[in-house]
Automatic annotation (TrEMBL):
GO terms for biological process: cell division. Pfam families: ABC_tran. GO terms for cellular component: plasma membrane. Belongs to the ABC transporter superfamily. The keyword Cell membrane applies. SUPFAM superfamilies: P-loop containing nucleoside triphosphate hydrolases. Coiled coil: none annotated. It is found in: Cell membrane. This is Cell division ATP-binding protein FtsE. It comes from Xylanimonas cellulosilytica (strain DSM 15894 / JCM 12276 / CECT 5975 / KCTC 9989 / LMG 20990 / NBRC 107835 / XIL07). Its main location: membrane. PANTHER family: CELL DIVISION ATP-BINDING PROTEIN FTSE (PTHR24220:SF470), IMPORT ATP-BINDING PROTEIN (PTHR24220). It is a peripheral membrane protein.
Length: 333
């Protein structure tokens, strides 16, 4: 479905390649995490697949098309076969939830009666029925991302690309978003997600392609985020020892059943109402285990200011979680 053959990308003459001889083959229906430090080439990979950028060398095939032979007028048709989700949601601020999703169908000329039936269906699928009339600023971050996913998926593209879709969300909300992406993947859609989020990658156990300095340094069928499997092969699979401090974080994460939108919505609401993490006592069964493991790499991408909305209790919790993560990352690194 997506095939990179010895692909290199050099943005400016003399610059280090953003991607260097990368070969990756992603089959129809796969779910793939693209991980790597900031600047390793993840977004470049996604932009090349979207034909937003052209490779300097190598061949790229997407949804049966050889992108090197794709003439300009066929690019919109390629893009219709790819849904794209971003960290900062990129919703139209003056349009309602319904209009944001409908817009994606209007621009490709779908008839009004199709839009009228399709939009409510997809909004129900992402758990936003009842919120059709709200504007983006009247939604939580998780809800805004659900709108963005609905918009990306409403045309039922065979491929969904997501660039840090949980980067602005707290852990519980992120899990709800992951469940949604997983559900979309189960409909047969190929999902490729660039992320820094070690918890999510470790939890999902999907294929992991790791980039470093533009090179592919790892391609694991059911991988974890960082180096731990190679360092501590015996403990890496243990849920309690899954990550340094995982016990503390576990106290904030209620894992809803797959497909249970109501439970996911409740979990998000509970996360927003929860006191900051530092005031929560971890359950005795989840006592954090102290062992020295190098941090894989820091989540260095800053929260995008364009994604900001009026402050709420949920924002306070998110800020607190991000602060704590930053402190923890600094301590481990
Ligand atoms: N438009 C551009 N012009 C010049 N250089 C670029 C451009 N986009 C990216 N780069 C460079 O290419 C390299 C890879 O960047 P890329 O954005 O693909 O990394 P990334 O892994 O997505 O990083 P992050 O996790 O921070 O988003 C970096 O060195 C970056 O500075």
């Amino acid at each position: 479905m997506i095939r990179f053959e010895n692909v290199s990308k050099v943005y400016a003459r003399g610059a280090r390649p953003a991607l260097d001889t990368v070969s990756v083959d992603i089959a129809r229906g796969e779910f793939v995490f693209l991980v790597g430090a900031s600047g390793s080439g993840k977004s470049t990979f996604l932009r090349l697949a979207l034909r937003e950028e052209r490779p300097t060398r190598g061949r790229i095939y997407v949804a049966g098309r050889d992108l090197s032979r794709l003439s300009g007028w066929k690019v919109p048709s390629l893009r219709r076969s790819i849904g794209m989700v971003f960290q900062d949601f990129r919703l139209l601020p003056n349009k309602s939830v319904y209009e944001n999703v409908a817009f994606a169908l209007e621009v490709i000329g779908r008839p009004r009666h199709v839009i009228k039936t399709t939009v409510p269906e997809v909004l129900e699928m992402v758990g936003l029925d009842g919120k059709e009339k709200r504007r983006p600023h009247e939604l939580s971050g998780g809800e805004q991302q659900r709108v963005a996913i609905a918009r990306a998926f409403v045309n039922r593209p065979p491929i969904l690309l997501a660039d840090e879709p949980t980067g602005n969300l707290d852990p519980t909300t992120s899990l709800g978003i992951m469940r949604l992406l997983e559900r979309i993947n189960r409909t047969g859609t190929t999902v490729v997600m660039a992320t820094h989020d070690d918890e999510i990658v470790n939890e999902m156990r999907k294929r992991v392609v790791e980039l470093s300095g533009g090179h592919t340094i790892r391609d694991d069928v059911a991988g974890v985020y960082g180096e731990r499997e190679r360092i501590l092969p015996d403990v890496a699979a243990s849920p309690v020892l899954d990550a340094p401090g995982a016990g503390e974080r576990q106290a904030h994460r209620t894992l809803p059943d797959v497909g249970d939108l109501e439970a996911e919505a409740k979990a998000e609401a509970a996360a927003a109402a929860e006191p900051p993490p530092s005031t929560v006592t971890p359950p005795s069964s989840a006592v954090p285990v102290a062992y020295a493991v190098p941090a894989p790499y820091a989540a260095t991408r800053p929260v995008d200011p364009s994604a900001q909305r009026p402050p709420s209790d949920a924002d306070d919790v998110v800020r607190q979680v991000l602060r704590e993560r930053a402190v923890r990352t600094g301590r481990e690194g």
